TrEMBL record:
Entries under Pfam families matching the protein: Sigma70_r2, Sigma70_r4_2
GO molecular function: DNA binding; sigma factor activity
Annotated ranges, domain RNA polymerase sigma-70 region: 31-97
Keyword 4Fe-4S: no
Family to which the UniProt record says this protein belongs: Belongs to the sigma-70 factor family. ECF subfamily.
All copies of domain RNA polymerase sigma factor 70 region 4 type, residue ranges: 129-179
Keywords: Sigma factor, Transcription, Transcription regulation
Superkingdom: Bacteria
InterPro entries: RNA_pol_sigma-70-like, RNA_pol_sigma-70_dom, RNA_pol_sigma70_bacteroid, RNA_pol_sigma70_r2, RNA_pol_sigma70_r4_t2, RNA_pol_sigma_r2, RNA_pol_sigma_r3/r4-like, WH-like_DNA-bd_sf
Source organism: Fermentimonas caenicola
Name of this protein: RNA polymerase sigma-70 factor
GO terms of biological process kind: DNA-templated transcription initiation
Length: 190
């Protein structure tokens, strides 16, 4: 099963690379979506700076777009992108060693691992999904949920600001939670 998945990924990458050689923007976008997190995590691990890691990923994808037509060999796309990223990082370490040394010193305080970066990205994605769900709520429920999420207001303060009773705030919030649970259950099914 695992071998089948690896073969599928290699075949998918091969098809995307062939389309990329034909300057297909959708294939480039698909490659970016598939590998940008992976490359960012690698760059961040070694450069210890989010801006430098973002620059590394951008550099790699610009170079991929610019040089694809010059590549005349069969490649493993993931390995190729990894090698491009590694070479860029090594050049940055060579050219900017003082700055990167400082990044390492600063990173000793709190070292985010690859799992932390991916978790932070997943948390952001989950938060975006939550806000999409809140947007779908009826107006009063939506306002109550947004106040609960974005402020430290108590139920009493929300009730006073909205001109409703505290019990109405509580019941709307409980109903909103039920509606959001259904919303997330529907997302899981899709």
């Amino acid at each position: 099963m695992k071998k089948d998945l690896q073969e599928f990924a290699i075949n998918e990458d091969h098809a995307l690379f062939i389309l990329l050689k034909k300057r297909d923007r959708e294939a480039f976008s698909a490659i970016y979506k598939k590998y940008h997190r992976y490359l960012y995590a690698i760059a961040l691990k070694y450069l210890k700076n989010t801006q430098m890691a973002e620059d590394a990923v951008q550099h790699v994808f610009v170079k991929l777009w610019e040089s694809t037509s010059d590549i005349h060999i069969e490649i493993n796309l993931k390995n190729y992108l990894y090698t491009m990223t590694k070479n860029y990082i090594l050049n940055q370490i060579r050219d900017r060693k003082d700055e990167i040394s400082l990044n390492y010193i600063n990173a000793q305080i709190d070292i985010p691992g690859q799992e932390d970066v991916i978790k932070a990205m997943d948390d952001k994605q989950m938060r975006n999904l939550l806000y999409q769900g809140v947007e779908s709520l009826p107006p009063q429920k939506k306002e109550i949920c947004l106040r609960k999420l974005e402020t430290t207001e108590s139920n009493q303060q929300i009730a006073e600001k909205m001109g409703i009773s505290i019990n109405t705030v509580k019941s709307h919030y409980q109903e909103s939670i039920k509606m959001l649970r259904l919303y997330f259950d529907q997302i899981k099914i899709k």
